[in-house]
Design goal:
mainly alpha, single chain, 258 residues
Length: 258
Amino acid sequence: MSADETQTTNHDLFRDCLSGPLVQRSAVPQAKSARKRKPKGRKTSIKLVKDETTLEDPREADAKELADFINYLAAEIFDSFPNDLQTLSYSAAQNDTRLAEKFSDPLSPTALEQTLTAIPPSVAESLETYGLLEEQSDLPKFLTPVLQEYVNAATAPPPIWSSTRTSACEICERDWIPLSYHHLIPRQIHAKAIKRGWHEEWRLNSVAWLCRACHSFVHRVASNEELARDYWTVERLMGREDIVAWAKWVGRVRWKSR
């Protein structure tokens, strides 16, 4: 995975970690009233309207406004991270002991201080304005567990591939048909993939769960070397127009059991 791909994936991961406490705090009454001044920062920042006297049911709240607010905060915070935190991964931590020590569990005081002090003041101001922080000085206490959750998730080791089994084919999405596992990096190419630097060893046994028809189709449209070099995730496979067209067609092929 390239640095840009890792950065995009990590932004989404951080947003997910941040959303939990924000959704929770948005669903309960706040002790302080929300101030009416506008937060500083991006012009696209979103104002949340809260009823302080009643417990809001998050299912009935304006989910779109909350989602936009979470997107805004996640972008403001993530963009302030140092590059090594934005591109943090299991592979990066395994290959750099300094990085592993810096972003450990618990996070080192140095890493926390460097990360928190770089966050724009508009983040704390927005959270305080909307009653999600009592005081702006509470930001480190609020964000520290979010940062730790993000770091732990970003550096988590890969799963035991057999445990990733899905209930439906990952290409055509048929859930009533037997599945087999497809080696995303064909075993015949493992040595070449390591030698040429296409992949690290820990990724070699990654699999996708496919029905027999989709499994056969994938091997018809790309050679083992192409699969290992260019199509080593389901997302990359689904980036091919021929596979998308196949998935739409075969997904409509159904038969009745006897």
